[in-house]
Amino acid sequence: MVVILWLLGASLLVALCGLAVFFWSVRSGQYEDLKGASERILFDD
Amino acid sequence: MGLGQYYQSRALDPALRPPRPDADAAADFSRFIRTLPDSNHELTLSIDGVQCGACVWLIEQVLSREPGVVAARVNLTSLRLRLVWGGATADAETLIGKITALGYHLVPFRAGEVGQGDDKRARQLVRALAVAGFAAGNVMFLSIAIWAGLDGGMGPATRGLLHWFSAMLALPAVAYAGRPFFSSALSALRHRRTNMDVPISIGVLLVSTLSLIETINGGNHTYFDGAVTLLLFLLIGRLLDHRARGQARATAERLLSLRVAEVAVLRPDGTLERHAPESVLPGMEILVSMGERIGVDGVIIKGESSLDTALVTGESLPEAVAPGASVFAGMVNLGAPLVLRATATGANTLLAEMARLIDIAETRRGRFVVLADRVAKLYAPVVHIGALATFLGWYFGVGASANAALLIAASVLIITCPCALALAVPVAQVIASGELLKRGMLLKSATALERLAGVDVVVFDKTGTLSNPDLALIGDYAPDDLRLAASLAATSRHPLSRALCVAAGPVMARDDVVEYAGLGLQAGEIRLGSEAFCGAVAFGDNHAALYLRRENGALVRFSFAETLRLDAAETMVRLREMGIHLIIASGDREAPVRRVADALGIKDWFAGQRPSDKMALVERLRAEGRHVLMVGDGLNDSPCLAAADVSMSPASAADISQTVADLVFQGKGLGHVATALTLARRTGRVMRENIALALIYNLLVVPVAIAGYVTPWLAAAAMSSSSLLVMGNALRLKRGIK
To answer: Is pTM beyond 0.90 here?
Structure first.
């Protein structure tokens, strides 16, 4: 049953990575202008 | 097909006149420029006129082609432009000129410290929400395994392991995500008050601690899942609430910052200098050009012109002024340039007088206690006493162990935690304010909807509110006369000229027109203007009129009148059907007010009302226990707007009125008033339904919890389903509103 420890640990680690990425995205201001972001996808540049 | 090609056809020729000639004031931006550590300069501006992504693209492209620009980014949500460039600070003028030439109006944004604190709080809430969501999801996975194994399929060792993992996830998450509630509860307790956050905090902390003790003792039931899901739901409500409030605040801030008009001060050496209106000293000479709004109170020392005083006095016809006449901030110069001497500034200006009246009105209005707070005030003590009684009952009455009794009491707290209550109101509010925005109404105050729902009297201003802000041409005229007159009038900003052009449709403006301020227009031998200017004989009716004298001396008289907003009559019918009493209070003379009142079938009307009279009227109504909605646009209405229970202003209103009003509506229609009231009543009903649903759910489940039958999975399921129920109920607001 030791395998359950590994499984739990690994899955939590992956989830924590996701949480870290979300924190980074909040800090880098990606939620500051949701309306603008939906329009910017149409720009050519 | 790229946007690039589209905009190549849009000439960016600096020689072309900007599409909006009135937005030309070269404001002083240097005060707002910040120098960054890397010696680049930064400037944040509010932009007016940005509609969609194409505008964003255009502005950013134009700016990024300029040499020296490091970054130019438009935020479409807050309508702000952040500009970073290297080189001289004076380059700002050139860069801003490029954007102004495209037809956008730019104003330096004064980033207030309040606003920054607000942003920080929003981020904190989003992070707390993320942590709560993360923990809730993972703990729930573990919990499902535990619940599935409760029948005996799972050994105590495995269950203990899963409990420990749950604790490891839940405890840090509670400590982090619970902070918004803990700090609010603490500050409430410190002021010897209680709010919704007190029972939340006590419940969450107690449940977490007890669950930890259970885990250490190897018990069967832990409530980690309940504690974190609870926080998740509550944080959703909190974030929605914050959004609604933030939107209201940002709207007000933008309205204000877009209107920081500067005043042109004429220095003794004849040069012009731009000042903020509040920094003008009495005795300074001020130049007011044609079409400009006067920024200070003063006396005219040079120039003759006519002034549009509608925003200040409510009078619909322009007033002719000459040297020696007193003018007030808020009037618009329609004719030739004027030079004013600023009279006593500070507390003696009309504007300051209004501000003082508004202050008085607002302190008298008192703080409105929102429904959710009123419920929470009753709810919190009942819940706490209930949980305490449960503990005492089990411990002393039944003789259960302290641990078991505490656990049952905790389950009562979890079950009664005002999850649905905390969601019930914000969800309804966010949906309703979104619906209002879609219809062109900006809700500026978060509590306005609740106040609007109780309204039973509406007081209307006349000029600019019931009637259109501009006069309109009445009667029939030969198309030829109309076109000729319009070709002269097209060059003038006088309200009558503009009304004439609107009636005539598109015409070519003549380029040989000379304007005589206060008299009229002349092109060759053709004249358009007052009766004296055209040599006509006065005509005995009350209508404002323009005369056209053709080259052959033939005279045509154009009459103008105030027209009601198109749907005014229909709106009055709708309002009456809602059982609302209608009143007109106007600063205008008796005859026009009576005419409008008769046309709309309103029996209660008051003419010649000064601002303090209007305020007294509203306060008298409120003293009778009526709930008053004031709809007005003028400077003279602003104290009254502040005194009423709730207030609305059209977007064409005076700055100060829009600032005071709880709701600003756009467009030509008055139907917004009825729509907003309907929506507010429905929202109020949905809020009350939601609170009732939440209370009924508690009544059903609490006995089960007190009896000790609530297991963790039952608590989680009940909590989630009641939250979903109130959210679903609030979503009904999206349907079936005119």
So the answer is: no
Tens digits of residue pLDDT in B539-564: 666 677 788 888 887 888 888 888 88
Q: Which fold has domain B3-111?
A: Alpha-Beta Plaits (3.30.70)
Do the Cβ atoms of B483 and B607 come closer than 8 Å? no
**Residues making up chain A, counted from first to last:** 45
CA-based end-to-end distance of chain B = 38
Q: B166 to chain A: which residues are within 8 Å by CB?
A: none
Task: Enumerate the residues of chain A whose CB falls inside 8 A of the CB of residue B78.
Answer: 32-33
Tally of helices (H runs) and strands (E runs) in chain B: 24, 27
- Cα–Cα–Cα angle for B532, B533, B539, rounded to 5 degrees: 40
ipTM given for this complex: 0.86
Q: Which fold has domain B429-468+565-682?
A: Rossmann fold (3.40.50)
What residues of chain A lie within 8 A of the CB of B2, using their CB?
44
Where exactly are the structural domains of chain B?
A: 3-111, 116-249, 266-348, 429-468+565-682
**Count of helices and strands (H, E) across chain A:** 2, 0
* Tokens coding B652: 């064409």
Contact between B134 and A15 using a beta-carbon 8 Å cutoff: yes
List B91, B461, B470, B633, catalytic entry: B461
Asked about B512 being catalytic, the answer comes back as no
**Residue B135 contacts residue B173 (beta carbons within 8 Å):** yes
Q: Is the dihedral of CA B522, B523, B528, B532 positive or negative?
A: positive
B115: distance to nearest CA of chain A, Å?
A: 14
Q: Which fold has domain B266-348?
A: 2.70.150
Q: Where are the domains of chain A?
A: 2-40
The pLDDT tens digits of the residues spanning B284-333 come to 888 887 767 777 788 888 888 888 776 666 566 677 788 888 888 777 78
* Token code pair at residue B92: 């700002």
Q: Report the amino acid identity of residue A33.
A: D
Could you tell me how many CB contacts below 8 A there are between chain A and chain B? Answer: 57
Using CB atoms, which residue from A31, A39, A43 is nearest to B76? A39
